[in-house]
């Protein structure tokens, strides 16, 4: 977006918040700007319901309001955290006036409407949680101005639409991206591989299609990958088996085919959870998992795997879930289910 236009947008949102409140307050600068912005934000968040957020009133200093944290060296809002409340409103444009904000968590507070463009004014923002609400519409491109952001969580809104923005790849500080359980479509952009610091990528329960980008194998810091319950097809890229830090690997409920590597224990030495059930994957059982001593959950059900399953599975003393149903096990010979006695 044009930088000059972004400045105008932030300035316009600030003026809008000022005009909504008395002129004597609007003329105050610095920390009073935050108080003004919060009062305007409250009006939108609560949909004007007077009993909501009762501590957000003019008799208390705004740094003492519920969910508000101010900086140690200045009385500017550095964090806004509200969770598990029924606010029932929207995110207003005055949000963009909280320019010292580094943490914004509005989780499960019954928000509606879209994510305002003014979020792009929050240049110091590092953590953004808007999950478990009813937000809708596309992810605003203005968010790309928040170059310091490390965590984005828009999961479990259900109505966030469009495609995963390709400009996400320019947010070089990002470590965690949660977009699960929404209405996103299209392919998974290969530009996500530009997140050199990304540790968690969670895109389950959307409508993604096409193949898994080979480039995701460059995410060397990744410990958590979930692309489950989409419409992804093709083979699992061999590049993913270069992600040696992976602990959670979940590609269940897609249309993936092909086989699994014989050396799964070498590819994922830190593996704890492995889900690829509900696909069209075939081949022999990956017996190398017997060497994954940290494995807790393993599910390859509803595929086309066949025996033999090794007796050495008894080594997996941390195993809590082992799903192999609806494959071709038990049809090759009298002894191919003997492994059960080792568990």
Number of strands: 20
CATH topology: Leucine-rich repeat, LRR (right-handed beta-alpha superhelix)
Spatial arrangement of strands, main beta sheet: 1-2-3-4-6-8-10-12-14-16-18-20
What count of helical segments does DSSP give? 4
* CATH superfamily heading: Ribonuclease Inhibitor
Into which percent range does the helicity of residues fall? 10-25%
Low-confidence stretches: 1-5, 15-28
Instruction: Give the strand content.
Output: 15-25%
When the domains are counted, the total is 1
Mean model confidence by pLDDT: 90
**Class by helix and strand content?**
alpha/beta
Radius of gyration: 24 Å
Provide the CATH architecture: Alpha-Beta Horseshoe
Keywords:
single chain; leucine-rich repeat; Leucine-rich repeat, LRR (right-handed beta-alpha superhelix); elongated; 343 residues; 20% strand; 6-stranded parallel beta sheet; cell membrane; Putative non-specific serine/threonine protein kinase; alpha/beta; 12-stranded mixed beta sheet; 12% helix
